Input
Amino acid sequence: MKAVIPLAGKGTRLRPHTHVVPKPLLHVAGKPVLDYLLDDLREIGVAEVVLIVGHLQDAIRSHITRRYPEIRPHYVVQEVQDGTAGAVSLARPWADEELLIVLADAVFEVDLGLIRALPREKAGAIWTKEVTDYQRFGVVVADEAGDLARIVEKPREPISRMANIGLYYIRDHALLFKGIDHVLESPQGPSGEYYLTDAFQYMADHGARLATVEVEGWHDAGKPETLLTTNGHLLRRHRGGTQEGASVEDSVVSPVARIEAGAMVKGSRIGANVTVEAGAQVLRSDLDDAIVGAGAVVEGSRLRDSVVGDGAVVRDYSGIVHVAPHSEVLSRNW
Output
């Protein structure tokens, strides 16, 4: 089995952070979003990955080489941002076996091992998550057997609360690419893009049985507020704590916070859902629901719902900030 991961998007909802860091390499709970996925793939033995790249692609390539030398990557550049169907179509030269297709803008809590137990008559599986705000999503409608019947984008009526979350296993890859060809030959969607979900609908309409499976956890990391929510969830679940080698002096640190080795916290209160990464300094400050990137400095500040990029500096500021890497926010009384 091979994996296909579209990574070409510019991450406009996460600016200014994504001006210099690709969206999949932004950190939650001290780890790039992409790495949670790659670690899951490694666990189930997937070693060959097709990466659809574009924006800041050199950073993606460098990261894979440095952190995952055992992966056999194939890179293909998506020159035109024409949607998920257009992106996955570029993986065709390597799509000669079962495929796992994953959109890398979320952290999944899922047992991918169930793929091995999927009955042979199934052409694949689509993972879903029940949501209350179904109007924001493409939703999956299953038949009585639990297989895909329809995918409906942002329904006005509650025909289903099972959201399509961007995680797919495809056994019948030949039919998938027939579906993609059909989509690319059809008019573009309302946003001017070609949707991969329409290819899945094509498969279902042509007799493919795609199992629908509810994922245990799906944690969006595609915009600042959800990046912070996911950071907090992971800290509560298993990523919190003060690491050996961190310096904490005259400070109060919540158990639902992460202070990494090499970080310094002095004269501060670190509240819940805060990550302070390696080499960062938090001095005389009060933080809640925040990510302080590697090597950043926060001094004399009260921050909440904030993301401070690697190497950035925030001094004497109170409120919410989103600071790009190696930038400064300074508040002075003149």
Notes: The chain has a mean pLDDT of 91. The longest helix spans residues 224-239. The chain has two domains: 2-220, 240-330.
